[in-house]
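Hey team,

Filing this mostly as a record. A colleague (T.K.) asked me to run one chain through the structure pipeline before their review meeting, and I want the input and output archived in the tracker in case anyone asks later how it was produced. No errors, nothing strange. Just documentation.

Input sequence:
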Amino acid sequence: MFDSIRKLIKSLLYPLYERRLVRSLDFSKTPHHVGVILDGNRRWAKSNPTSHDPHGHKAGAGKIIEFLGWCEEAEVKVVTLWLLSTDNFKRSEEEIEELLKIIGDTVDQLAATGRWNIKPVGALDLLPEWLEQKLSALKPVRNDGVEVNVAISYGGRREIVDAVKSYMSQEAQAGRSLNDAAADLTTEDISKFLYTAGQPDPELLIRTSGEQRLGGFLLWQSATSEYYFCEAYWPDFRRVDFLRALRSYSVRQRRFGS
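Output structure:
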């Protein structure tokens, strides 16, 4: 009885709180690029045993379109969503197959909206052929709106290794020696070959579920990012949680790593 009353009170108060948060935000200070580690699906499933979603991946996928709508409202330009890490392949074959199918369906749903350009970022060669082909076939559909990076089979160290390999390959094709190419290598050269090349680095990185680490997410790009760690599991992540993250970012004095 008490829990029901408490939930009712929260449901009545949160819309008021959201409106107050929106009024307090300066959207001129909205981060252009937000990265999100969608963490906590499995723990959410354990805390919701009647959900018929044993690993929580369906619930997590169902939150994505809603979240991107919030990003549009806040005038965010680029969003990177970490859906699957290279380390996730250590999970059981059954769970990985389920997760890959849900990811494939999610990408289809995102593309079907026509609202966003969807860009896969990650080591796509590690994925099954059907998913790699689906992701490789994605094309830009508009010149405005939020750019959505779906980080699938992604690892920050692997990204940097791939960037260096691509640079060295380009130099070799131009007829340069390995020693000369290595001597001239700069941070700008590596940035040109990252999965997110051409996009601004993320100003804000959000991780749900209470874990306070990045786990290699956007390892190179996050050198000067601000971090926001949220206790809510990803399927429970609310608009008010997102607004809190934006408020936290807007009041920070950014020192860009100094």
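Quick notes for T.K.: The longest strand covers residues 78-85. The chain has a mean pLDDT of 91.
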